[in-house]
Amino acid sequence: MSLLIVGSVALDSVETKAGSVTDALGGSALYFSWAASLLNPAQVVGVVGDDYPMAALDEVAARGVDISGIEQKAGESFRWAGRYSDDFTDRETLDTRLGVFAEFNPTIPASFTDAKYVFLGNIHPALQLNVLDQIENPFLVVCDTMNFWIDGERETLLELLGRIDVLMVNDSEAIQLSGESNVYRAANWILDKGPRTAVIKQGAYGAFLVDDGKVFYAPALPLEEVVDPTGAGDSFAGGFMAHVARSNDLSHETLRQAMVYGATMGAFAVERFSVERFGEISTRDVEERVQKFADLVRFEIETAG
Amino acid sequence: MSLLIVGSVALDSVETKAGSVTDALGGSALYFSWAASLLNPAQVVGVVGDDYPMAALDEVAARGVDISGIEQKAGESFRWAGRYSDDFTDRETLDTRLGVFAEFNPTIPASFTDAKYVFLGNIHPALQLNVLDQIENPFLVVCDTMNFWIDGERETLLELLGRIDVLMVNDSEAIQLSGESNVYRAANWILDKGPRTAVIKQGAYGAFLVDDGKVFYAPALPLEEVVDPTGAGDSFAGGFMAHVARSNDLSHETLRQAMVYGATMGAFAVERFSVERFGEISTRDVEERVQKFADLVRFEIETAG
């Protein structure tokens, strides 16, 4: 089923203890669509500058990602540079140049407006609302945001919450948005504002889903080596949404499965710089890793109850 | 099957945003044995001062905890005072008075030396070795430690690692001990030093087991209200060991179950100050909560593989 992502397409320069890359493919839309493509084709709406290495997008296009909604404009592409601490618990932003992304006001191509599964990547909430107005009849709208908008565009964000199905944010963002000091209370606060479901990501620990009055926790897969955590959350979102889209089912059980596919894609993402890992793996690798995830949390207890 | 804990018996004064208590029952041995008693009787070896409210131990004794190994000595009881931040991510120690605990050199009563399941609470590793010398033929020895001993008694601690079955520590302690910057590498480092199994606790996020070449992750149960996190780790240990002792089985599958009982006891512990919660609940409450845990991580995926 059709899956649309609207978000950033960037060039990232990243330093970690494993090495460094310069102007590597990045941005929420690219991580999301690469991860999604292993399960379900995705359509991307984004913007790049005239300095963008368009040929580098061929590989993701070959995987079934429709990149015709990536507009190339005169000017510089969005660039981000950062450095991670050796244990990956901190990261320092060295440089952010928004370039043409600063004026990004997405127009959804006519061929994408019938998308049934929609992910609103982290952009101004007014633009996220504007995207929603252009989609005809979506089955599921999932939305990301960040501290900058929570702080500066709170009212618009609250309006947006009334129109989306799932808010997917980091625990610190949920805490900031809600004013609660507990992540589960923060999730319930979010549900009171409109969404049927909250997904709260907890970095290297995992992520949880609150849906249908139940909580599902997906721990992060154990990794002995992390190369670059950039894009893990967007890859999680791509795996989550692509599984829902290919299942074309919004049941609680499907959302639990989607969390597992999300966690699996997040684990793949961090094993290489940029989106490199997704170019190396197949759908079969994903399904095999999902089985490893199953073993991570499996146990049998018979109780008298 | 017989279960022995050697550790601290203390009086804790704790402040959290939920309130405060003064000279409340605390210490690793008390949290451990209270939690354990809901599944399997426990024997406690510890020391208190002549100021200790011995009558307060009657309730835990009534639950089947053998407190005859708690020696009362002339002097002050071990007291700890601390204050937690509102989100429970930080705690400040306001006062520590070791009292008679400073000279604690455990003598295991003759009636306890045949204990089959032994938990060595956090005391000087030389004393932990000394306890081990007094136990005749234990089936499983699980050991805790802390940053102070990792820093100051490293060689003794390494000797101890060669004689125990399970090291159960916090992630920061595993990182400090191993010198690794990744918790899964730290766990494998620990296994290289002797133990067959490592249990790494990650506070409010959960805990993982590395055993038999496999990793099992037990997320913390979702809690919307935390009253006092003190003793959560010791309660986890009590639930873990008591399940293994009552099963009298050291298989990997039993250890997975034990992690779930540990996580369940940790969740109960933090819902009240001190050991209060364990006085309110029954074994049936524990089993019901284990079912909630099962629902927290349950999902069904059929894959082509």
Fold and architecture overview:
Two copies of one chain form a homodimer. The first copy, chain A, is an alpha/beta fold. Chain A has a single domain, classed as Ribokinase (UDP-N-acetylmuramoyl-L-alanine:D-glutamate ligase, 3-Layer(aba) Sandwich), CATH 3.40.1190. Chain A has eleven helices and 13 strands. In chain A, the strands form two sheets. The first copy, chain A, has a nine-stranded mixed β-sheet, with helices on both faces. In chain A, strands 3-2-6-7 form a four-stranded mixed β-sheet. In chain A, a hairpin with a 2-residue loop joins strand 12 and strand 13. In chain A, helix 1 crosses helix 8 and helix 9 packs across helix 11. The radius of gyration of chain A is 18 Å and the shape is globular. Chain A starts with a strand and ends in an 8-residue tail after the last helix. At the A-B interface, helix 7, strand 13, helix 9 and helix 11 of A face helix 7, strand 13, helix 9 and helix 11 of B.
What attributes does this structure have?
homodimer, 305 residues, alpha/beta, 9-stranded mixed β-sheet, 4-stranded mixed β-sheet, 26% strand
Average pLDDT taken over every residue of chain A: 96
The total domain count of chain A is 1
CATH class of chain A: Alpha Beta
Strand proportion of chain A, as a percent range, falls in 25-35%
Q: What's the shape of chain A?
A: globular
